[in-house]
Amino acid sequence: MFPSQDSLPTPIGTLDSLMEDGDTSAKPHKVFVAHNLGNRAFLMSVPMHDFHSMSAVANERGANGEPVAQRKLDELHAAKLANYILKGLLSGAIERRTVQKKPTFPALEAVLAKMGGQPYMSMQPIVANIRSSDPRGANLPGSRMITKEDETACFKVMLSQRDILWVVDGQHRRKAMDLVFEFLNGVQSSHRYPKKGSLFPSDSSEVSKEELAVWSECLEVARGFCTVTVEAHLGLNIDQERQLFHDLNNLGKKVEKSLALQFDSSNPINRYIKEVLVDDVLDMDPIEKDIVNWTEDTGQLALKDLVAINAILFLNKSNISGATPLDVEAKKEVATAFWTAVNSIPDFGSPGAKVKTVAAQPVVLKALAKLAFDFAFSRRKSVDSEQNFETLLNGIPKLDYSHENPAWRYYLMTDSERSSAGIAELKSFLPTNDDGANRDLGQFDLQAKLMRFGAKHNDIYPVLADMFRHALQLPSRHEKQLNIDDF
Questions:
Q1: How many CA atoms lie within 13 A of 238 on its CB side?
Q2: Cα–Cα 20 to 30 A to 243, which of 100, 123, 290, 312?
Q3: Please, what sign has the CA dihedral across residues 232, 236, 240, 241?
Q4: Which residues are 167's β-sheet partners?
């Protein structure tokens, strides 16, 4: 018999002490104990679904209404991350089949290709705080895990439902997981894709049997095979959480845009540029930065400029964010025809091209890309848009791209000067100069006879596109056209 204390066996102790030591919801987690700059933290690898269940984001407000340790949630950014995570689960499902030596599942490959694959996928570690822990974790039950050689492999720590992983850095990633699981669970229960905010680009709202099996596998890998790496700090107070959030988000150096574009192979427009445009169409390799000194111009375009031009060509946007593989694939043939015509412009891509032709300036190519989009892809295409696009392609190599073309100086001239220069008819094609908008297209060097267009491309290229409409006798955008939808 065990000796008793207060009518209870000694090894059991009091009920209060049992409640203090733990509860029945505690689960073991293997962790490495780290000391990040001297501060004890746990490094954990947790299945994605489990992490989502045992974590939360601290968005409560302080005494004076100020945020505690988080910025405002950006729903659009979270949705983009959700798309990335879903692609990662698809990739993980394919990898798991390989590891388990299971036969390939063609539907998995097809769905991933439809969403847009990439060479490699990974998610950076999430930083969290276990607020219920002592600063050194002394109140968390745990034990050392020993190898056969009597060496420490890791530690097993018991975390209960009260030991929430409060996210300090990674709230958008966690929200993205929320969107992914909402999508997967919704698809499984309704067998239909959501009308709005669907993470999968499908032409049909119905989920096929093969696709349903794919989404089921994604849920399976999220529960075990695909993990989230967590750096869990212990017992931080509010001031410490704020400081950690600040340091993680402000002390890192942002990657230069040109380098990011050079390394990124996930965006379908970026892939088109690297795999089709550069390899098969253009006689140039893109450079990292634009050459400011025109005497040193090699004729090559900067990658960031190629991306910006193609953003207008494919999407009519200023960036390539949001491009889908299906959309790019459908427009690839037309885009290649456009760039083939551009590549036929005299002196384009040759050494010293910027001195020889204004077509070497990216803003001019943006204007041409805008016209190509309007005639080939716009939802408001006119009934003769196909013929207009052919006129554009045939006319691109023949347009007057000389620096001395008086059209570039239209807004610098008086009415009499425009008449003398033979460009008075441009008036019906161009926006007026009295609406307060920026009409400064750039500067013309009278001595060098060079036209340098300005840096405000978004203001300039629509006007240049209007000039090209006039030169090619294409319809003015300021006149009402009969659209296909009108019939």
A1: 9
A2: 123
A3: positive
A4: 57, 128
If you search the block for the tokens 């290649």, which residue do you land on? Answer: 336
**Tally of CB atoms within 10 A around 203:** 6
Say what the pTM is.
0.75
Burial (0-12, 13-18, 19+ Cβ within 10 Å), 22:
middle
Which pLDDT score is estimated for 291?
84
Note the pLDDT tens digit of each residue in 90-112: 999 999 999 999 998 999 999 99
In the chain, what are the domain boundaries?
27-250, 257-486
Helices then strands (H, E): number in the chain?
16, 12
Can you tell me the mean pLDDT for 282-293? 85
Nearest residue to 181 (alpha-carbon basis) of 74, 28, 47, 59: 47
Question: Over the stretch 342-351, which tens digit does the pLDDT of each residue have?
Answer: 999 999 999 9
- Residue 48 CA: distances (Å) to CA of 8, 95, 125, 173, 177: 42, 16, 12, 11, 8
Structure tokens at 73: 């949630």
Q: Which helix (H) or strand (E) holds 262?
A: helix 257-263
| Cβ pair 245, 233 in contact under 8 A | no
